[in-house]
Amino acid sequence: MISVKKCRLLQLFVFASVVAISISAQDGESPFRNLDDALRKEPANWAGSKENLSKAFNADRIRLGDRVVPELLKYLADDIDRHYWISAFLEHSSYLHGNERLPYLALLVKQQGLALLKGREDRKSRGDRVSLSVTATVLSAELGLLKLAEDYKKTAEQHLAADAGLRTRFPGMSRYNHCLYEAIGSGDLEKCKREPVEPDPSEPRTVISGILNGAAINLPEPVVPEAAKILRASGTVEVAIVVDVDGNVESAEAISGHPLLRSASVKAARQAKFKPMLLAGRPAKRSGRLIFTFERD
Questions:
Q1: How far is it, in rounded angstroms, from Cα 239 to Cα 288?
Q2: Fewer C-beta neighbours within 10 Å, C or N terminus of the chain?
Q3: 66: DSSP letter
Q4: Residue 78 — φ and ψ, nearest 5°?
Q5: pLDDT digits (tens, 9 = 90+) for 123-166
Q6: pLDDT digits over 64-77, tens only?
Q7: Nearest-CA neighbor of 147 among 179, 187, 177?
Q8: By three-state DSSP, how is residue 154 classified?
Q9: CA separation (Å) from 57 to 53, 54, 201, 266?
Q10: How many Cα neighbours within 13 Å face the side chain of 65?
Q11: pLDDT on residue 278
């Protein structure tokens, strides 16, 4: 016969296993769940509001922090629309919402999309190739990769010459970008003048930081769950956070650590308080990590 104590321990072990499985399932969620949710709300997916979609993408980007590049490259998969629009969200000023521009990553995403289109000759694929090639031309020229820009322009122009109807897939561009595109091959890029871009004062910028424990003016200790005590769970839990302009934690997500200690760490992180940050005299958000250490009794 199993003793009451052993029965209690068995129940706690089962409970711990269920929690661990549940957390593992949460970890399996899409890293860009805000973007996925926004896409589901749009009547025509990527044909919907780019403002809403780019804001959702940037929310995911901030939350992921240092993990954004490997997670993004996996998330793109073989979806060409994702490659086109996310590359735009990474470098187009109207889609950044105060976040850092990442032109080299944007170009890598475009290159990956074009590689996926290789060998596809249906009309949609040829149109996608035009759109990606034109924007890759401009971005390569801006980054000083002129030979690469010439290759991309050649690809785009070959498809446009073969099918004039694909002209509808030529993306809209600013005067500066259009000038760059037209100047590729002529060597006269100096004639193109970039229009000044005024920052949107309504959009706070986000400062990417490292470990924020020392910056907190109030950081509660996590309450250790009973199951974690029984199983003597220990170690460190790392929580990625975004702090709003008022110094409150806007979002928190455990990204490493023992499964039984994560929820307590996230709860403590959400109660943390920081001094509001100013960047060039304007209120700013910040993203970073909190580290919680649990010692074995």
A1: 8
A2: N
A3: G
A4: -110, 25
A5: 899 999 999 999 999 999 999 999 999 999 999 999 999 998 88
A6: 888 899 999 999 99
A7: 187
A8: helix
A9: 6, 5, 20, 22
A10: 23
A11: 85
